[in-house]
Design a protein that fits this description.
It is a single chain. It is rod-shaped and about 60 Å long. The N terminus is likely disordered. The protein has three domains: 56 residues; 41 residues, Spasmolytic Protein, domain 1 (Irregular); 53 residues, Spasmolytic Protein, domain 1. With 160 residues, it is an alpha+beta fold. The strands form three sheets. Strands 1-2 form a two-stranded antiparallel sheet. Helix 1 crosses helix 3. It binds 2-acetamido-2-deoxy-beta-D-glucopyranose. The site of 2-acetamido-2-deoxy-beta-D-glucopyranose has 5 residues, from loops.
Length: 160
């Protein structure tokens, strides 16, 4: 699965192409392509599911720190605290005449290039040039040997 994950992530942008070229061919190469496509599809599904799960996940305390006059209404009038949180909103009834059920602030995230070379997920192709790599939004470090030099950044949540 790890291998699958890495390969598919590396091919993220190109994952549609192999599907088109595998028609009416049953060579071992074509079958390998099929596997790759399946692999990419399952990873895509996983990513989609985790995104969905994140949408349902309750907002953090930090995300709910919105000054009362900047709150935008979420849910319907008279919604209970429990219902409000269930639909992913923040509830705070301490200030009258402002929305009590309101939208959370978006999560603050930051892109970082992972330090451990052995956790790198390949983002390029062998011999990719630094500029080409960074233009794809990926990290480039030309060392050490035996690991991808062009690799995906990681997204970390900022502290509040
Ligand atoms: C509710 O909002 C008020 C005003 O912004 C804030 O002072 C208070 O800490 C909040 N309560 C909770 C439980 O977050």
């Amino acid at each position: 699965m790890e291998q699958c994950y890495q390969t598919s992530l590396g091919k993220h942008k190109e994952r549609i192409k192999p599907a088109a070229s595998r028609e009416s061919s049953t060579s071992p190469l074509a079958r390998a392509m099929d596997l790759k496509v399946l692999c990419a599809l399952s990873v895509t599904l996983l990513v989609a599911l985790s995104t969905l799960a994140e949408g349902i996940a309750p907002p953090t305390k930090c995300q709910c720190k919105v000054v009362p006059r900047e709150r935008t209404n979420c849910g319907y009038p008279g919604i209970s605290a429990a219902e409000c949180r269930k639909i992913g909103c923040c509830f705070n009834a301490s200030v009258p005449s402002v929305p009590w059920c309101y939208n959370p602030k978006p999560k603050k995230v930051r892109k970082v290039c992972p330090n451990d070379p052995y956790t790198r997920i390949n983002c390029g192709h062998p011999g990719i040039k630094p500029r080409e790599c960074t233009r794809k939004g990926c990290c480039f470090r030309a060392h050490p040997a035996g690991v991808p030099w062009c690799f995906y950044h990681r997204v970390v949540e900022e502290a509040c």
